[in-house]
């Protein structure tokens, strides 16, 4: 695992040992960031279920002003901290070792996210719970791009009832990215 592009291009990143996290592959990460492109310059990025921090660190390397990393698992949070220090991005990364829904409730109302990326554990229906919390949050605006990494069989039939609209969906061999905005 490495940083694909930007100011920290090619720097290797640690990943969390064990099967509790699934680091996004370099190829999928590159496709994702090619899709969101230049919109990262100066943005505020939120990485939920951050794992090793690879997505948020990629966003910082490509020009995000700040990234908030939310990761409850202690080993994963330590890995994020190590990766931020190694890449010298710790001054722009804010790590919160807390439950995702609790983090969303605790953010200051003045904080507005440009991008929210979430990669929850598969097959636990956490996507709906988190999207419900995000919909109630003042941190999400109609311009906020929400990106969910999910298994191919995850169904997002409910998003319109929550007040979101699917803009696009990109499928890979084993998973997909679903891009949502507030309606």
Automatic annotation (TrEMBL):
EC assignment: 2.1.1.171
Record flagged with keyword Methyltransferase: yes
UniProt keyword annotation of Transferase present: yes
Main enzyme class: transferase
Gene3D superfamilies linked to this entry: Vaccinia Virus protein VP39 (3.40.50.150)
UniProt keywords, alphabetically: Methyltransferase, Transferase
A GO molecular-function annotation: 16S rRNA (guanine(966)-N(2))-methyltransferase activity
Family annotation (NCBIfam families): 16S rRNA (guanine(966)-N(2))-methyltransferase RsmD (TIGR00095)
PANTHER family linked to this entry: METHYLTRANSFERASE
Protein name (Swiss-Prot/TrEMBL): 16S rRNA (Guanine(966)-N(2))-methyltransferase RsmD
Lineage: Bacteria, Bacillati, Bacillota, Clostridia, Lachnospirales
């Amino acid at each position: 695992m490495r940083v694909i592009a930007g100011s920290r291009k090619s720097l290797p990143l640690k990943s969390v040992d064990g099967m509790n996290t699934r680091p996004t592959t370099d190829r999928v990460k590159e496709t994702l960031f090619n899709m969101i492109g230049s919109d990262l310059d100066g943005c505020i990025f939120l990485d939920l279920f951050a794992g090793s921090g690879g997505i948020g660190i990629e966003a910082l390397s490509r020009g995000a002003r700040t990234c908030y990393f939310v990761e409850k698992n202690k080993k994963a949070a330590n890995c994020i901290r190590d990766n931020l220090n190694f890449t010298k991005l710790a001054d722009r990364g804010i790590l919160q070792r807390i439950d995702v829904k609790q983090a969303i409730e605790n953010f200051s109302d003045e904080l507005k996210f440009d991008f929210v990326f979430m990669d929850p554990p598969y097959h636990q229906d956490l996507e709906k719970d988190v999207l419900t919390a995000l919909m109630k949050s003042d941190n999400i605006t109609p311009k906020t791009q929400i990106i969910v990494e999910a298994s191919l069989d995850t169904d997002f039939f409910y998003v319109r009832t929550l007040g979101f609209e699917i803009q696009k969906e990109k499928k890979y061999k084993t998973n997909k990215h679903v891009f949502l905005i507030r309606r």
